[in-house]
Amino acid sequence: MQLDERSPPVTHANCPRCGGRLARDNDSGRCTPCQAAERDRLSAPPVVPQNFWDHEPVRQALAERHLGRVIRAYRCHPYHGRVALPQSMVAGWLGITQAQLSRVENGPPLVHLDRLAHWAQLLGIPASCLWFGLPRQPYRADDGAAENLHAHDRMAEQGEAPAIAVTVEGASTRGGGATDRRRFNAMAALAGLAAAGHPYLLTDPANVPRNIGMEQVRLASSLVQDFRRADAAAGADLLCDVAVQAHVRLSTWAAEATYSREVGDALQSALADLGIQAAWLATDAERRREARPYLNEAIARARIADDPRMEVQALTQLSMLLRESQPGESLHCAEAALRVSARWATPRLTTLLHLRRAHTYAVLTDASGFSREMTKARRELERGPHEDDLGFVDFVNEQEVHGIQGLSYLALDKPNRAAQSFRAIIANPSPGHRRNQVYYTVHLSEAAYQQGDVNEAARIALDVLPAVSQMNSGRISRHLAQVRSNLAASPLATTATRQFVAAYDRAVSV
Question: Do 229 and 243 form a contact (C-beta atoms < 8 A)?
Fold first, then answer.
């Protein structure tokens, strides 16, 4: 075969990467210079020539709009030599495990735009080959979507501020395919943020003022609230890149502008708050590796501004983020938050910190530690809300306690007790926290599966599937995908399990 008309023929005597002649005793399939280049690519994908993407298996996978198959064709491309790139290496580039990559390659197509775009950029896939748009690249929306976006631009110029929830809800019915609609939703949310008074925070850095006063700090602070409202309407998958962009712009602005000491402290707190919000969106979008730097920075900024409340908020989220990967450090973060907030913590904040510790003890299979922290959490919750409650603890209620208890019982391999906890949430839902309810319902399906009741697991999963599809939460989608994988592989396949698997596969392929 030939990579292109100008390349020398690739035979057993030629290097498939550069076309150079191989020595007779070279059985590696690569010449010496290319083997040296191979060593340099262990931590990142290599730069490949344009004709790399013309290889028939790659072209076929791209035509099928299945990024997992594209990755498999990428690994097996003759450009890399006679032996395919190992899944473990490519998984490391993508920030996932080898087992996860195997499921991506062999499972249903990915549908989350943020992950599609992120991985496509990592591998260097040309935008012209893709069936979706890439960040910071020209994107052609359909006529209706473009007109709607232009309308938002006009409203922003006129000083009007449309509600983001309405903007995104209306956008979801417009556009061509599902990817177009998701892309437009994020664009509409961005337009809504600009219309709310933040255009110079999100557009050309040359437009931002060089002297920062309290008015600009208040705008930066209100931007976090706008992201929270947009998150509730559009979901973290759609907003994560927008929040990252805003964080970069504001951080650059703060580093280059001038301001007083008083304004500087307030600005550091505002940037810490924005970093925490960006970290949450990355976590919920299942881009967890991207979240920690924002939290580390937020803690540093909070300490510079002498803002213990912001520091505690960042430590609380960091404790959750590290629970699975570094449970010992997760405990230390919650303990540090308890220590910093000892003089002023409200009961709901203390409840949340004990819940963080309880769940982490369960991950460590320390049943006594879990029980001790859950007792403390319930005791604090009984003290009720307080006028000094921080905004980020408004979800801490009886339903959240049941949810963390259920997750902890799953970690302790007690699915019966986990199911009881999750059912208590469904029996008494919290209307203002729909995402958490959906999240815990997916885990109820997991608990039913672990109990051996595959029919019940499939029924619950089928019922919650439409809600998950609307959430745009990679975190929830990942758990439902695991339920689907378990039910599809179960030797106890039934009509109910087949119905759910078929419905799930249809939903993710749309």
Answer: no
Length of the chain: 510
Do residues 155 and 195 lie in contact, with contact meaning Cβ atoms separated by under 8 Å? yes
> b/e for 49-61, b at 16 or more Cβ within 10 A?
eeebbebeebeeb
Indicate the pTM of the whole model: 0.65
Over residues 289-315, the pLDDT tens digits come to: 899 999 999 999 999 999 999 999 999
Contact yes or no for 448/457 (Cβ under 8 A)? yes
Place of tokens 């580039």: 93
Q: What angle do CA 53, 57, 58 make, to 5 degrees?
A: 30
Cβ–Cβ < 8 Å for 149, 193? no
CA distance 431 to 139: 37
Q: How far apart are CA 311 and CA 303, in angstroms?
A: 7
pLDDT tens, 200-222? 555 555 556 678 888 878 877 88
Contacts 24+ apart (CB under 8 A), 254-260: 254/212, 256/210, 257/208, 257/209, 257/210, 257/211, 257/212, 258/210, 258/211, 258/212, 259/211, 259/212, 259/213
Burial profile 281-317: b = 16 or more Cβ within 10 angstroms, e = fewer? bbbbbbbbebbbebbebbbebbbebebbbbbbbbbbb
